[in-house]
Amino acid sequence: MTWLITGGAGYIGAHVAKAMTGAGERVVVLDDLSTGIEERLPADVPLVRGSASDRGLLDRVLAEHAVTGVVHLAAKKQVGESVEKPLLYYRENVSGLGVLLEAVVAAGVKRFVLSSSAAVYGVPDAELIDEATPCAPINPYGETKLAGELLVRATGRAHGLTTACLRYFNVAGTAEPELSDTGVHNVVPMFFDRLTRGEAPRIFGDDYPTPDGTCVRDYIHVADLADAHLAVARELTGRAPGEDLTLNIGRGEGVSVRELAALVGEITGLPAEPVIEPRRPGDAAKAVASSARMAEELGWTARLGVRDMVESAWEGWRLHHPEARAR
Q1: Is 100 exposed, middle or buried (0-12, 13-18, 19+ CB in 10 A)?
Q2: What integer pLDDT is reported at residue 288 of this predicted model?
Q3: With bands split at pLDDT 50, 70 and 90, how would you rate the model's confidence at 183?
Q4: What does the pLDDT average to over 217-238?
Q5: Do domains 2-171+220-249 and 173-218+251-325 have the same CATH topology?
Q6: Mean pLDDT over residues 155-182, rounded?
Q7: Average pLDDT score over residue span 226-250
Q8: What is the per-residue burial (b if ≥16 Cβ within 10 Å, else e) of 105-140?
Q9: Which CATH number does 2-171+220-249 carry?
Q10: Between the N and C ends of the chain, which has fewer C-beta atoms within 10 Å?
Q11: pTM of the entire predicted model
Q12: Domain range 173-218+251-325, its CATH number among 3.65.10.10, 3.90.25.10, 3.30.70.660, 3.60.60.10
């Protein structure tokens, strides 16, 4: 087996590449490096620089590397930006995916894993969100992820691909400091960024119907997420053509934003009493995964907890932000 990982030099992608190569899988990465970092990749992983929607490039890469499976992570993924630029998101996340799938079908590749998101669910009123929870996304990002899932499954049925759609919940942490999240779009690095600048972390709304009034979320360590990709990729080799696995990737445990802020303060040793700002439109009070299907289908469960995520993320943040080491 040779796996093509699109977006493999990104934060999540590099962890997936590390997990798969560490387990003996052959990997080639396709990344335009718009947000990815080449140095994140293992030295023995070939990197092809370019777009995952460039049909000519895809045809060459799939043929030259004798690719037999694809893990598709390359996508636009910022909710706010998707509201401002829906055409960009549909072009990149849906039209671009269509080009990739056309190339995959033409090359005879029979296994395809799609990076999806809990954003497909919208704001469900559910104690635990399982894969049967109705999908009702509330922003263009979530819409494009749901459309991508539908396209992947339809292609699988029509052309005999074995497929998987993995719905990530909130990803945090790092397996190594060098692989850490360098952006400030997710809540843990957002907290670090504020604290490093001597500012209080922000919480959007404290009047939700939750134990402490702040939103409750399910967090998954990126190393566990990468391991889940490996487990799913290997599972697909034994599944029938046209079969699909749609799976939540989470821990099944909720942590409030206030609890997370307190843990960040404890681990960093910095004053982390949050400031409360107005609610953001569309934020669900609670979004916690049921991870039962992943355990039942693959015997896989997450190993690492929220403390592991914050401790490793802080180590990575300090590596990339010298000003944090001085605090």
Answers
A1: buried
A2: 97
A3: confident
A4: 97
A5: no
A6: 96
A7: 97
A8: bebebbbbbbbbbbbbbbebeeebbebebebebbbb
A9: 3.40.50.720
A10: C
A11: 0.95
A12: 3.90.25.10
Residue 139: pLDDT over 80: yes
Residue whose C-alpha is closest to residue 141's, from 85, 196, 98: 85
Catalytic positions: 141
Q: What is the pLDDT of residue 32?
A: 97
